[in-house]
Amino acid sequence: MGRLPEYLSVGIVLKPHGLKGEIKVKPLTDEERRFDTLSRVYLGEEEGCKELEITARRYDKGFVYLKLEGLDTVKAVEPYRHRTLWIPRQMARILPKDTFFIADLIGCRVRTLTGEDLGEITDVLETGGNDVYVVNGPKGEVLIPALKKVVVRVDLPEGFVVVDLTDMEGLLPDES
After folding, report:
1. How many helices (H) does the chain have, and how many strands (E)?
2. Strands across the sheet containing 131-137
3. Residue-wise DSSP of 63-79
4. For residues 157 and 101, is the Cβ–Cβ distance under 8 A?
5. CA dist 98 → 13, 113, 147, 148 (Å)
6. What pTM does this model have?
7. Which helix or strand (DSSP H or E) is residue 151 part of?
8. Tens of pLDDT, residues 48-99
9. SS3 52
């Protein structure tokens, strides 16, 4: 399982909030109250990961506001602006069946039932109804709806996804 990332992103620091070192974070998780179960997050740095202890958290209008131990001023948290917060994979929640972390899907090769290589997943669009895999390959950019009738197999350790495009006429660029 060497291709799966060791850390998963959980939020992006938008800016300092208030005068006592609180930070405003845009969560990168579907679980609205995910930070309730986290006691620490990590910030990637050139010399490794920096562990940050969460001492308080609150939620407002889709954002989470975190207070981190030892950071008590705007000046102390300003360097974290626009930085990603991470957790080790072992701290990740267990996903329901047929649900995957976006970070695990990025880089997977996509092929059809007949073995045609469509390319690599470069992004996942969260549309509300269903996710859409952005695949770049020999046919250019292809958007694959992440529906059970379309995505028939996901093998994360091997890094590939098999799709059934039988009922998806016109999805590929060279189809009429």
Report:
1. 2, 12
2. 140-145, 131-137, 117-126, 109-112, 160-163, 151-155
3. EEEEEETT--SHHHHGG
4. no
5. 30, 18, 10, 9
6. 0.70
7. strand 151-155
8. 678 899 999 999 999 999 999 999 999 999 999 999 999 988 888 888 888 8
9. strand
